[in-house]
What does this fold into?
Amino acid sequence: MNLEREPAAATADIGLEMPAITTMGVVGAGQMGNGIAHVAALAGLSVTMIDVNPAALEKAMTTIARNMDRQVARKIITPEDKEAALARIRTATDYAAFAECDLVIEAATEKEEIKRAIFKSLTPHLKPGCLIASNTSSISITRLAATTDRPEKFIGMHFMNPVPVMKLVELIRGIATDEPTFQAIQALATRLGKTTAVAEDYPAFIVNRILVPMINEAVYAIYEGVGSVSAIDTAMRLGANHPMGPLELADLVGLDTCLSVMQVLHEGLADTKYRPCPLLVKYVEAGWLGRKTGRGFYDYSQTPPRPTR
Ligand code: NAD
It folds into this structure.
């Protein structure tokens, strides 16, 4: 892997400088943050991960090593690639560690007030040219960008879960995002082996505008007694040829994230067709958030996981 800093490339069509990205910060070391760090380190970037919860950082490093072991076993990467990539990831607890970053990607909990507070604390530590991306599933990029000192260098870079496996990255320009920032992030996504789809900055963008209401509808189908968890998932796997049923998928995404996306759609588009199902709300209130907490629509303490309804 080539770790040399690449010279800034000219953005051909507009003649502006596209910033080179070799050093990346990641805020939030949960399911998405650890996946983003994983693919970036394998592509040769130096990565620093920060989380409010030190246990999350430790868990993220273990998860990354385990997921890379799987890739070694499948001969997708070599053991040397794995060791070199792991050596490029470090963890930190203070934003001062982001001083040299060319890009910071925020992948913290899907709550606007949390993200706003992060951007406020983060920006004073960044060099002037550092780009900022949010991996938000639904929140307005324009609004998040406005909380920073550099809305023109701010963009939505929405990875899919699990990041090392899923090919898509959605790119979302805020109203102020400039062309060099867009070009640099699109080039980075390509370098990470991803295909991009460009979405306008409307609530939940493309993938989640379509996917999460389907998940919410599946929860309504349980709530109204149309079918059990396994009947609904079997129906959609075999009847619609989906690789996973909507409730398995909800558990993979995280029910808290699904609920937050529905709330953003409901408030942002002011249409009652997006109202979150009360059963989804109840599961989140119970702390049954899916795979990440061991229980959601399935109980993961059993093998195979047992439907909870
Ligand atoms: P997660 O719950 O697994 O991880 C979130 C992490 O953020 C946790 O480790 C938490 O400790 C940390 N965090 C919370 N507040 C913080 C703060 N102030 N500073 C630093 N770290 C903080 O959630 P996730 O599934 O990784 O989701 C993260 C983001 O990615 C969300 O915006 C979500 O919408 C988005 N996303 C999720 C998926 C998915 O399928 N789960 C897919 C695409 C995008």
